[in-house]
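Predict structure. Input: Discoidin domain-containing protein, 904 residues.
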Amino acid sequence: MNRITKLILLFSTSLFTFNSCQNNTTGELKEPAYHVDPSRSEPPYPVIALPPDADTTSPRWKGIDLSPKSPVVPVSPQEELKSFVLQPGYELTPVLTEPQIIEPAAIQFDGNGRMYVLELRTYMQDIDATDELMPVSRISRWEDTNQDGTYDKGVVFLDSLVFPRFVVPFGPNTILSMESNEDEVYKYTDTDGDGKADKKELFASGLGRSGNVEHQTSFLTWAMDNWMYSTYNAKRIRWTPEGVIQERSGHPHGQWGVTQDDYGLIWMQGGASGVPANFQFPIVYGNYDVKGQYEDGFRVPYSLVRLADFEPGMREVKPDGSLSNVTGAAGNDVFRGDRLPRELQGNYFYGEPVARIIRQVHSSKREGLTYIQNAHIENQSEFIQSTDPLFRPVDIATAPDGTMYIVDMYRGIIQEGTWTQDGSYLRTKIQQYQMDDIIRNGRIWRLTYDGMDRSKEQPRMFDEPSSTLVEHLSHPNGWWRDKAQQLLILRQDHSVVAQLEEMMLHDTNELARIHAIWTLEGLRALPLEQTVLLMQDASPMIRKQALRASESLYKYGQSSLENHYLKLLKDPDVNVVIQAMQTLSILDIDNTPNHVQEAMETRPEKGVQVVGDQLLKNHAENKKLKSSQFTKEELALYDAGKKIFDGFCATCHGKKGLGTPSGTGGQDIIAPAFSGSPNITGHPEYAAKVLLHGLTGAIDGREYESLMIAMDSNDDTYIASVISYIRNDFGNKASFVYPDYIAQVRAQTKNRKNPYPYAELIQEVPRPMPAQHIQRVTASSTALRGVGSTRDPRYAFSFKGWRTEQKQSPDSWYHITFPEPVRVAEIQFDSGKSEYPESFTILVSADGQHWETTAEDTGHPGTNTVAINSDSLVRHLKIKTNTNADTPWGMKNLIIYVREKSPV
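Output follows.
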């Protein structure tokens, strides 16, 4: 009987027998410390040898045990329960397991309490990460229909995904998600109520990155300040009724996990570092280096698994074979529920799946700075330990029922193929214990405490009136407060403004007051007078939150707040002083460096000194940044455009590009926001035609108070400067526009007499064709680009990229077939530093037989852009190289711009 057959039999007999299972809470280890195959009394265990080139004197290999070992085998959830060592009084219960879910990596709950599960079904299905980017992952949705505590009804909400990065519930029957090696976040909606998404809409761009799947964007999270944060992106994004806007932030040091505390402070979880990150201050204010923030001993894990199967090798192995230094962490949560002991509330938890532990983190505040420590270091223990090597905790969440949920991927390998290659230490240990084929499992556990039953209050927020959602802002479970705030903002229901103001000013629950502040901010209904009043509140936390929330008012033109910020630099509470310094800095208020310096001279607290020093350095570096970020010509356009914008355009579009408030309570804006606008950051023809000829009509279905007048009386440099500036400030990053391009558009549209109606303009401006809408892509040849990649030429449309197998020649080509005839306006691709085509031709065809040459060009490093001077409707486009060259030809981030109708 082979091993796979035995495992199937093992699961078939014990998978769902959960009765009479008991947790080991005594702290005593049961032998063996890992599960073995009982049918194997004698080896044919594999004999493992050192790789031929292994340096046995190096710390990685020195002392390694290569003797034959019994294979680790998976056990049922019932048996796994016996492996846990919990703190007294706690108990774990499975709520959802394989085979219903496979390779779960993250969970989220929607407003009706349904649980979405991110299933990474291609993660390390063998030791070489074969087919890791095949489109077979999914997002499933689960319900507990009979309130017995287990999830019994599930549906595949979204299927056929390429290693999805996150799931964000976003209102009734709607989620946000993004796939690996892509740059776009999409909104998926179930419109017919069958539980499966049938509508896909672009939500935001510019959040992706390429590379190893463990090093890409993850955990997009809606925070209390109504912005959304993710790992790896030095920006934050925000949904508004007019569209998604974005702003720059500090650089996240997290890898797999983003969460927030009761006061909206974002915590990110480092992966390879094994420690939390970005928890000193809101990341939007930048990065801070605080020496000693990890207390002595914090990096030492207390693991009960002693297989020495850790990527760093023997240098990170304790004498007993357990891990000596945290090396890989995933998933995090500040527990904010109400059905576990109070001492857990507000504590940070994360999984260390290499050590097979869940860590509880205590934080303390001293002189405005945060210091963290393992809550169980005195006992040289952890909050949860396991003796099962397959326990792989990768996410933790505060659940609607007030308890804690833990996502256990339950598998053999937990590090991606980059670290398990031939000759690696980790591969040697994985094969020694035969863990490479333990896949396609997954368990979600609920943590409870004796005498504290889970809440059986079923969320029904999608069906409740907004007034009831406001009441949830005072719920003792932070999940309820967060979800109610998010849904109120998505509804944009201003009928509850008076109710929110009453809560903000007079509620006895401080957390309810804080949520009311931010809900009003998200509704653009935060009143100036009351906000100033809150800056004088008896509670320093309310003063601090009012300060942060008021930044939106300042951005929308309430410059009188500056005097109140200066007053708070002298606040008796050090945390308020630090917040005032950060607010002045991020709003770029005049003389901020002088104000920060004065605060540092009068306040000796360490937090003031650390923050002040960093803010002054940031100010100096930002001055240098433009000169390094932009070429001399770009910087001239940027600076000229900023001067024009501040003196003229900001009147309607707002000083920070968010629009100037208008209407009752300032809930409308005079003109569209520029921040994150796809019209502004998309093809520059849109902005060029608007500035030259003006614009009328509703924009994306929304009417604005102000009419955009023609500015064609200004010269081409003036127009190019303004467009270049708005495409590269307010969180935007796009190509610069030059005077010769404006001259070209001016000449093409010289006969235009009236402003463009928006509906007409949007049809003739080039727009990118989504890669999934392209019918077929073929190429003369392809080559592998990194571990887990494929030969599919469609990767030219992603960060991953495509390239020829051979060096460039006149025989190299790339052929795109469109599903229906289109007008191709432009192509754009990135060839990196060296794989650009030395000379190439672009041809189009209606039938794939008769070809027309529409452009010829020479390539260069970086982004190549080629206009297609043809108004023909075509179904085929071919790019071919013309000459021999010593390098392959490669493309990534390929964009095909098309027009709906002729621009003439």
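Residues 606-629 form the longest helix (24 residues).
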